[in-house]
Amino acid sequence: MGEISRDIIETFLNPYPKRDYLIETFCPEFTSMCPKTGQPDFGSLTISYVADQKCFELKSLKLYLQQFRNHGAFYENVTNLILDDLVAATDPRQMKIVAEFTPRGGIRTTVTTEHRAED
Amino acid sequence: MGEISRDIIETFLNPYPKRDYLIETFCPEFTSMCPKTGQPDFGSLTISYVADQKCFELKSLKLYLQQFRNHGAFYENVTNLILDDLVAATDPRQMKIVAEFTPRGGIRTTVTTEHRAED
Amino acid sequence: MGEISRDIIETFLNPYPKRDYLIETFCPEFTSMCPKTGQPDFGSLTISYVADQKCFELKSLKLYLQQFRNHGAFYENVTNLILDDLVAATDPRQMKIVAEFTPRGGIRTTVTTEHRAED
Amino acid sequence: MGEISRDIIETFLNPYPKRDYLIETFCPEFTSMCPKTGQPDFGSLTISYVADQKCFELKSLKLYLQQFRNHGAFYENVTNLILDDLVAATDPRQMKIVAEFTPRGGIRTTVTTEHRAED
Amino acid sequence: MGEISRDIIETFLNPYPKRDYLIETFCPEFTSMCPKTGQPDFGSLTISYVADQKCFELKSLKLYLQQFRNHGAFYENVTNLILDDLVAATDPRQMKIVAEFTPRGGIRTTVTTEHRAED
Amino acid sequence: MGEISRDIIETFLNPYPKRDYLIETFCPEFTSMCPKTGQPDFGSLTISYVADQKCFELKSLKLYLQQFRNHGAFYENVTNLILDDLVAATDPRQMKIVAEFTPRGGIRTTVTTEHRAED
Amino acid sequence: MGEISRDIIETFLNPYPKRDYLIETFCPEFTSMCPKTGQPDFGSLTISYVADQKCFELKSLKLYLQQFRNHGAFYENVTNLILDDLVAATDPRQMKIVAEFTPRGGIRTTVTTEHRAED
Amino acid sequence: MGEISRDIIETFLNPYPKRDYLIETFCPEFTSMCPKTGQPDFGSLTISYVADQKCFELKSLKLYLQQFRNHGAFYENVTNLILDDLVAATDPRQMKIVAEFTPRGGIRTTVTTEHRAED
Amino acid sequence: MGEISRDIIETFLNPYPKRDYLIETFCPEFTSMCPKTGQPDFGSLTISYVADQKCFELKSLKLYLQQFRNHGAFYENVTNLILDDLVAATDPRQMKIVAEFTPRGGIRTTVTTEHRAED
Amino acid sequence: MGEISRDIIETFLNPYPKRDYLIETFCPEFTSMCPKTGQPDFGSLTISYVADQKCFELKSLKLYLQQFRNHGAFYENVTNLILDDLVAATDPRQMKIVAEFTPRGGIRTTVTTEHRAED
């Protein structure tokens, strides 16, 4: 199964670091593999954060997320792993990820996870 | 009428137990029997929780909920019973269930119940 | 004009009185008479409450509300009267009624009223 | 149960009788009684017609329809009876009624009936 | 698996047999069993017909459809079987059934089937 | 009550007269007066036409329609009068007006009228 | 330009003055004139308040608002003036007005203003 | 890039071959690769057909479509190729595919293609 | 004002020229200039066509449409000009353009124009 | 690339400076250029503020925003720059801008930034 490398994520300098403002990025074309059944999973990610010194660059985010295309992982793992990687890359004041997956067996799951910088 | 066994619910270890994050599961295909009229009731359940050490496994959740298919119970009972069973199985930090039932006699009912672990 | 009797409302014992949980009942088929014009009014009621010892039974609620079919009363009166009657019948921990009436003369009115048990 | 009189329906002269044009009237506040259960039914009527010499007056239409408030009849009867009465009152080139009733026992019914003047 | 009896369907005399008019019945609470997996399927049925001498009675329709609750059959079979049974019971001028099933494996299926009386 | 002058409508030359193409103009801010009650009526107009040699200019259309602001007329009259005036001004190959009025007394009316050039 | 008189607003005694409850009135058919261009503006008002001793009567509210039909004023003025007038007429515990105006030059404006009685 | 094999598609016997009826299958989780940019494309397929002797089996359809996950092809090719393969596998009386792709560069594309058996 | 060159439009060979199938392209980000006021106009284009030998390439379509960004033209002209240019570039069996422009002065316009190859 | 001048923004005196009230302006027709690709970006701005002594005039706001039409800047820069300019022009008690951009590469971004006057 495909490896996930966080080194793909590029950043640029936050142009307004003195102001707390919110950047929300919606990625409706997320897909990964179910490690149990080997079947593809589909979903959408909403990543919102207050940058400190670094913002992630959108094209590199897309390439980072495409690594999951042939990667097997459970919903809870995927969502928290992406949070860990984006926090490591940008060291934000706060960041939240909402991952909504399409129905399987008539059941639909959403995972919401959040990071806050320690003061 | 069918018995409900909570032993059906399987769990797996929470992969990120150090972080408080929210798992929301939406089950739109719930059906039970009205104990008064013997007629089927239909509804949807939204189960959201912050796991502690254990997460419930989705396929076993589906099988657990299918037990209600031929089980007679009132809305208030069904919703609180499911909460009790899922809390017993996963011992979460908090859990909330919203059960929306389809209209009967021109009246539609929603029951919302919640559990919080004692600190 | 028709009299309103609160004695019609039947109750059953709250099956989970130790837990504060919310029961929401949506009644989209409410109709009464305008006391000024004698014309029918139409609307929907959303009754949500945290039961203490008693829950109202849905069929009796329907019959109670049908008494307004030929009863004349203004919006503000109707909504608060229903709150008074349901509180008297069930003595809840809290109860809220939102009554949305259809447009008259291009104007639409919603009345929201609430009861909280004294601690 | 209440009698239905078609004499209530007032008409006015079609101001543009030379042109075939469509008048559509939507009445979302229709209510009658179920003859079997004695319970109220609710629905909406869409009446569309091409007038010949006469148009029905809207206030009188409202009063005509209010007669059904305490009148017992099945869906199929109600819809065709209203068509018969409005055709008798206005003698239109064509007229169609779509009656959508709210759900009963989890089932929703729509009746569509039509009249065309013989050439 | 449960047997399906069409004898449950009761009819009443079409009150307006001289006029071709359309009766549409929407049943959003249909459920059957998948014969392959033994899992429940869910869907909604829209039955529309032009009655000849007989209309089906709604309560008996509901009981007829409830027979499928523990009956195993594929989508294509279920839809055509219900058409056959309702045609046998009411001998309509025409009848159409649209059955929409909820997603399985990320795929959603709708079956549409129709009967026309031979002239 | 205000007079309606069709002379206000300005036109420009159809830039593509050899091709039959459709221009649809939606005017959601129409208001006139009810001649019976003296109360304002509100609605929206959808004017669609295939121009021959002339198109109406939008600003002049707006000023033309504003004349109805203090003008009293019934729905059927208003709609057909506007059709007559726009046909007189532009002599189109075909033109259709759909006028949707907001609810009065719980009843909503739409008038649809059409003109076709004689071949 | 038309004068606005607040004396038109009639009131009736609040039937439940001991209870704080919310009355929300939605008026989608508001129109005034732009003082700069002389063109009509259109919008909707949502007036919500907790009455003290007096409620405003709906028909008189409609007549009060119709005064703006030929009155020129900017959005910010109109909204605050209506608040002042309704507060003067009913002396409520609190009142809020949300005025949403339709787009002009591709830009849409909403003004929200609020009054709270001094304790 | 991945090869596409139509041999994966399994069929079963049409249970009602004497009746022309429509089977519509909606697959919202389709993904392929752009042959030009190497980037993933996403879309949904609606496949509707009137079967003759054979229906395609849904699980095998899913596996067939998953072959496109790492396959590069333009929209027009993909849609017509799937039509060719499904027609070859089931030899239907008629079949239509509507493929809606998500936006690229601010532009969204839908391809619709159809097969009819020669009489 | 900017010139419009149709030479920018690139094409590729229709991969399935023997089959009549429909390609629909939705461009929600169209903007041009009003020649009268010098103000920007905004709108969306839906271009649908049955290709003969040539399909237009999407990136070149985008660049072609961007030429209108600083080009002044009326709605009717813009829409028909784009049709002429795309027909000249691809010589399709048929092509239709629906151009929906955002409201100006409270009025919204849609232009629909169509080309059919002569047989 | 085009320069942005904040001097274009005209203001008028806040007519109700003693009351804190909210003015919300929605501008769905915003467009700028991507500095990296030279391609146009599209989006909508929601500007909401509590004015102190000055309100911005809508026509001048439109002209100010049109300067971005041929100006290259990243989302985060654009949004914060507009906030800076509007704060400089009107010195409000508080102001918030929500900028929603249309999808690029399957990813959609929203930037939210806020200013509060120091007390």
Question: What does this molecule look like?
Answer:
10 copies of one chain form a homodecamer. Chain A has 119 residues and is of the alpha+beta class. Helices cover 21% and strands 39% of the residues of chain A. Chain A is built from 2 helices and 6 strands. In chain A, the strands form 2 sheets. Chain A has a 4-stranded antiparallel β-sheet with strand order 2-3-5-6, covered by helices on one side. A two-stranded antiparallel sheet of chain A has the order 1-4. The longest helix of chain A has 16 residues, at 75-90. The A-B interface holds A 74-77, 79-80, 104-114 and B 14-16, 19-29, 55, 58-59, 61-62.
Provide keyphrases for this structure.
homodecamer, 119 residues, alpha+beta, four-stranded antiparallel β-sheet, two-stranded antiparallel ribbon, 2 helices, 6 strands
In short, what is this structure?
10 copies of one chain form a homodecamer. The first copy, chain A, has 119 residues and is an alpha+beta fold.
